[in-house]
Amino acid sequence: MKKMMLLGALLVCAAGVGHAQESRQDASLSFMGVYANDVYGLTVEPMHTTSTGGILASYRYDLTPRSQLELNYSWAQNSILYHSASFPVGEVHTRQQEITGAYVYTRSYHNWNPFLEAGVGGYIFTPILDSGTHQSPSKQNTNIGALFGGGVAYEISPSFDVRVQYRGFLMKTPDFGQAQAGFKTNRYYVLMTPALGIAYHF
User: Fold this and answer.
1) In whole angstroms, what is the distance from residue 104 CA to residue 118 CA?
2) Domain boundaries, the chain
3) How far is CA 167 from CA 24, 130, 170, 194, in A?
4) Lower Cβ count inside 10 Å, N or C end of the chain?
5) What is the pTM of this model?
6) At CA 127, angle to CA 35 and CA 168, rounded to 5?
7) How far is residue 7's CA from residue 38's CA, in Å, rounded to a whole number?
């Protein structure tokens, strides 16, 4: 009888541990590309963003099996060039950082988990005062906007998945406090940051 009670207690404990270990969160680290179309506005013809690579770190918390909340931080470094009739090229070498939050909707098909996301946040553009920045003093810009995107995660184990996604961020173009120098476009643009990475569920 004691053995049966002990066995029953062990089964209850095992079930409790299994429930406690159910994955409700994940953290991911990804390599991302940074691209944007040229922007024409006011005297700028055009504003050109150089393509580059960067790092994206994300955290997700499961509200339900299909709904998650996500926090993102990304970092990249590139140059933004301004062409105008008044000067051939104005250039700012910049460090850009993303801080965003989003709602994620996910579906599951065996090991495949496609998802869509939408959210808000900001991009911080910090001028790097080196030979790549032609206009001084250029000022830091913090541009608020909307995050959108989608992708798919492929589960390679209960704890890990590979994540591929397209991300876009809609915001006003930065002018680095150089509106008088002709950096202001009064236009919105989409900064595209497709990403590939791996997520750990815990």
Assistant:
1) 7
2) 24-201
3) 23, 30, 10, 5
4) N
5) 0.84
6) 25
7) 68
